[in-house]
Amino acid sequence: MWRKRAKISPEGGTEAPSGTSERSAGPDADPDTDAEQGTDMTAVTSDPRTDPLSRALAERAELIRLCLYALDRARSSGVVERLVEGLDGVGVAALRPDGERFDPAHHEAGGTVPTDDPQLDGVIAETEVVGFADRDRLLRAPIVTVYQSRPEPPRPR
Where is the composition biased (Basic and acidic residues) (predicted)? Predict the structure, then answer.
């Protein structure tokens, strides 16, 4: 919400905001003053200690958290798809790292699958629970199943 703030007169009193045109110029001009209208266009918030950008970012984070909560509980594949598309539209990407190397800093191991192929050892076989990242910040690590080499059977003596 924007509102005009009363002007302070040189005598210390205040003048009611007016619609008359008053131009500010020079280095002492108030950057929050609209030069055309001579009015202060500072944003008014319910909590003066919170600037509008901080509040908007906090509200965005809360909406993302609520969308992830709803996504985890959605029973309809159409609803899930729409939530994932909506989150992607605001910079929150779904993480399905199938085929990538397992990295405990970015993935959570939910289980292992044995493999005889040494090339697959430590590679993610499948994503059990999709993870999410807000641009470069990890919100929730994906829970994955990782290929693990079978131990070699003991050799007969």
Answer: 98-109
74 with 83: CB under 8 angstroms?
Answer: yes
Radius of gyration, alpha carbons of the chain = 29
All domains in the chain, ordered by first residue: 52-149 (2.30.22.10)
9-13, 82-86, 127-131 — which is least confidently predicted?
Answer: 9-13
Cα end-to-end span (Å), the chain: 84
Tokens of 85: 């598309």
Q: Pick 70 or 12 by higher pLDDT.
A: 70
Phi, psi (deg, nearest 5) at residue 104: -60, -15
